[in-house]
Amino acid sequence: xxxxxxxxxxxxxxxxxxxxxxxxxxxxxxxxASSASESDALYxxxxxWEGPLDLLLDLARRQKVDLKSISILALVDQxxxxxxxxxxxxxxxxxxxxxxxxxxxxxxxxxxxPKDEQEDPSPEELxxxxxxxxxxxxxxxxxxxxxxxxDRLGRDVFAxxxxxxxxxxxxxxWQCNWYQLxxxxxxxxxxxxxxxxxxxERPVMTLDSAIERVSAMLGVSLDWMELRTxxxxxxxxxxxxxxxxxxFVAALELAKRGKAEIRQDAIFGPLHLRRVKAA
Amino acid sequence: MSESSPDxxxxxVEACLFAAEEPLTREQISAHLGEADVKDALASLQEQxxxxxxxxxxxxxxxxxxxxxxxxxxxxxxxxxxxxxxxxATEVLAIIAYHEPVSRAEIEAIRGVQTSGGTLDVLMEAGxxxxxxxxxxxxxxxxxxxxxxxLTHFGLDSRKDLPGxxxxxxxxxxxxxxxxxxxxxxxxxxxxxxxxxxxxxxxxEPLENRDESA
Amino acid sequence: MSESSPDxxxxxVEACLFAAEEPLTREQISAHLGEADVKDALASLQEQxxxxxxxxxxxxxxxxxxxxxxxxxxxxxxxxxxxxxxxxATEVLAIIAYHEPVSRAEIEAIRGVQTSGGTLDVLMEAGxxxxxxxxxxxxxxxxxxxxxxxLTHFGLDSRKDLPGxxxxxxxxxxxxxxxxxxxxxxxxxxxxxxxxxxxxxxxxEPLENRDESA
Lengths: 279, 214, 214
What we know:
The complex is a heterotrimer, with one copy of chain A (about 280 residues) and two copies of chain B (about 210 residues).
Chain A: H1 3-6, H2 10-18, H3 38-48, H4 52-61, H5 72-88, H6 95-112, H7 123-148, E1 167-175, H8 178-192, H9 207-218, E2 225-226, H10 237-256, E3 260-264, E4 271-275
Antiparallel strand pairs in A: 2-4, 3-4
Helix pairs in contact in A: 4-5, 4-7, 5-6, 6-7, 9-10
Chain B: H1 8-19, E1 24-25, H2 26-32, H3 39-48, E2 54-59, E3 62-67, E4 76-84, H4 87-99, E5 102-103, H5 104-111, H6 117-125, E6 129-134, E7 142-146, H7 148-153, H8 165-170, H9 177-191, H10 197-213
Antiparallel strand pairs in B: 1-3, 2-3, 5-7, 6-7
Helix pairs in contact in B: 1-3, 4-6
């Protein structure tokens, strides 16, 4: 804990972050008080870094050069020294700071190695990428400060205190026509009518008449006949449906009685019937 | 305005009055501006704004900007929007038309469902239904009837023009639901092979029901 | 101001903007004024008010009157103090504004630290940041962008007005690290070629320099 570079005072840091355009309102939250003891100050600062990259950015700023020309080696040394001091003071250090310290130590040793022993990616590339990241964070830090220092509505400029307000009065044009009106009435009346169940009379072919009909027709020929040819030709479609169902059951019944045989060539294909020749 | 830019005090008074949430007295303005005398500034502002869309006015020793009175109508714009009457509202309207004058309780008895007050409000807003007094029974319920606008809108000379139940039936408007269902099944059977149209008609029903509850 | 009284349309636009509770687009003003073309009226109002205590400003295509910035010290009151934005929130806001639309992962890549959900909430609650959809990459992460209120609050005409945006762009500081790294490598490569070419003319150069200094 000796000197400015290793122990940056919080107040100093704040003014650097904000640059020229600082105004009182733009101060960051929770910056350490300058009256705090040395170890407190360090602790509070560690709490206030927004991660290892943030700490690196601040250390880099301390080199007082363009972020593009910072010395990565010096930065690595400063960072490691900083973390070591925090450790010496037995301060709790978040894992990501320690990970960064370890990675930086590795980077430093790689940078110091002779070139031909280097791996891919090269330490130069890693260092350059780190520098680019720091520069990007620095750019956004500055941009944020400049943004907050602008003439802000409600702080520097003010909107009208008591605007009358613009009103759009929506007038509903309701739509409904004659048909909808009388239809609705009809529906209400229907809904409220006493419910009467009427069993609609439907044309049907009973099983008995189907058996009779199918056996009669089987008697005409010895050849295979398709089930549908057993149906009445000019019937009402509803009667046809019923006839198809009862004729099918009739066919099964006749097969069971040993009077007919049934064949189906394909699944869902037409059913064929043939009379069983009397033995 | 651009020719003679106002002095700093006038500008400050202007900004102060603009940002204020309520009308300010001369003293309040002064207090904001380091006890400066703002009398002249107010007078000159009032004159500068006299012919603009905004005026500076003094009401009971308090100063404020306000929209010029002749432009007040611009601040309230009316806009028509077309809206379909909900099924519930259409039913209530129909019941009133066929049975008027009716009370809400009677409407509910005919519909078999509770009717929300909003439904009647909509019909009155549309100008088709009016309160036609109270029925002289215990509780003196409000009774509703249709308006002349109702007849005009629906192209009726009088309420007697509304078709009777027998006519509705003849026109197929009261076909029993069972039959309608049969017909639907019949259509399905013919359509089944080449289209999925039946799925649509199945979806349509719950939607209509939802309408009704709205 | 009194010498040249504004025309009716200008007065109407003025009244409209004065009465409005929030900034209005040109279209919104037009809609209030019977679809009139208000472009010229806005321009002339902006000029008329340029040196007054109130200014007419355009923020992201929306217009509003506000007090002149140089009068801030007179108008600022204790209760007007804005809630301070935390350092993290400020940084995240800047990243979103300068990079929008960005995903949380992209924000974190720049900050080198995880962003708590609360930070984004604060910015969204302030009305400065909104969810702008999802990026069509694996995981479909939510992406964030700034709002018109952001422009209004920070007095920006448009996003192009962000302080230092052009410089940051030119310096490549808004490009991802990977892209920037590759650009640098390319530049180095071309430079190396150039210097190779210069080697041939090495003799000539000092001569030229000498000429110049003479």
